[in-house]
Amino acid sequence: MCLTSILCFLLLLCTSINSSSPPKLIPMPTLQPFKEGSAFRLLCSVQYGAMPLKFNWFFNSKLITYQLHDINIETREDESTLKIKNVKSENSGNYTCVVSNEFGKDSQSVMLVVKSPLKWLVEPKDLHLIHGEAGKIECKATGFPLPTVTWYKNSEIVSKNEEINIERASKNDKGVYECVADNEINESLRKMVK
Predict the structure, then answer these.
(1) Closest Cα partner for 56 from 11, 109, 8, 112?
(2) I want to staple 188 with a disulfide (CB 3.0 to 4.6 A). Which of 24, 109, 182, 183 is the partner?
(3) 89 has pLDDT over 90
(4) Would you say 60 and 107 are in contact if contact means Cβ atoms under 8 Å apart?
(5) Domain boundary among 93, 112, 131
(6) Shared-domain flag, residues 28 and 72
(7) What is the pLDDT of residues 6-20, one digit of tens each?
(8) Which SS3 state, helix, strand or coil, does residue 105 take?
């Protein structure tokens, strides 16, 4: 009889928690970077909370409509799934699932990082200057995460900018320069110029 009373009390307690409680989400995992072109799926699942539940998804604090960045959202009674068939770098950002009912709300957020390969925006070219002449060598790259650009001359760093400006060409400016674009995720882009 005592055991039956305890079980009845626990069942009553669980029922009252679910029937008049704000929702509580199961924590979302920390995500590893995704490669551009891969599929992404994020589940937002309720641990407990009174029905009915309402789910909303946000991308960088903006409410997601079903047309935003080719995102598909499927919602059931106690869970919602966000899917992206073919992730692109513009899908990188903070995703937040908010669930609410008449008693309150809960939210969980994760950061999605989409790795995209490095590409030249401005590929460095050889520069031929006469003594005393001015000129510049440019090196610009894109990718995600955004790359940093470093210029080397004879294996020593000469600049951490996207361009090298030469105000008056002299013998000291002569040599082989190498531009390296790197984001510590993708393979570096390298180009040597004279």
Answers:
(1) 109
(2) 182
(3) no
(4) no
(5) 112
(6) yes
(7) 444 434 344 444 578
(8) strand
